């Protein structure tokens, strides 16, 4: 069947409606079928349609005036060849379950297509995830690398339920001495620190606390600090800690939120992230969590490294976007389509 191209869409006549009925291609109306550019190029390659004056290379050249067309086409082709029917919009694609198609079922995924170096704005992603949720769809990012390989990520705004079996509120108090950003507490005076998952043994007599732990415990009125024998306020200590760690404010907000949900965060340095997170009496950490200031953007390549590492050690990867003293958790999980 022959198509026409108006510079934006490809069009088929009445005979093209069979493509919609059999495979969910295009959008019918007034006896015609309107094809999105990705659909038209795909059908042209498969010799399902003809476009006078165009072969694959010429049409691709024309459509590639849109600099992001080629990556979208790679995703469209991949999903079609995996047995999915899909249409463009409202993000990049709406994808139906296998065996369903437009007019014969509801779309299940909303897919955003990004290149490996594209910046991901976490606030924008969270808004798109919320939109997908309101539409009862699952939000995916399809990442396209420089060699045209595709990786699919399910993205969730994770509300992070409290950890089962954990009591987020303790009763013990302690006194410690600050040595720069590090705090030491006599273990014998506060054995509850190690019992509740705070700090680590410095030697047989002392427990060492990290800056995030210190700030949380000071906020909870469970720790007082001195420096050279003089009392040290929370504000003064944070200034010292910030001199050694420019991310301490966001890390402290994330640590506090996790603790108040019943989790026990510990440093995630060896995993390249702020915290590895324990909870529910589990001996191994369940999550990797990284605090991000509001307005942060990361490349898809950076997110991919984080997700791959987290999955390799059987953990979830959560980014905690900090807005004042609130946290919005965004989870990226690699999936197979």
From TrEMBL:
GO terms for biological process: tRNA-type intron splice site recognition and cleavage. InterPro entries: tRNA_endonuc-like_dom_sf, tRNA_intron_Endo_cat-like_sf, tRNA_intron_Endonuc_cat-like, tRNA_intron_Endonuc_N, tRNA_intron_Endonuc_N_sf, tRNA_splic. Coiled coil: none annotated. It is an enzyme of class 4 (lyase). Its EC number is 4.6.1.16. Residues 18-58, 196-236 form the tRNA intron endonuclease N-terminal domain. One of its GO terms (molecular function) is tRNA-intron lyase activity. Residues 69-152, 250-329 form the tRNA intron endonuclease catalytic domain. SUPFAM superfamilies: tRNA-intron endonuclease catalytic domain-like (SSF53032), tRNA-intron endonuclease N-terminal domain-like (SSF55267). Keywords: Lyase, tRNA processing. It comes from the Archaea. NCBIfam families: endA (TIGR00324). This is tRNA-intron lyase. It comes from Methanofollis formosanus.
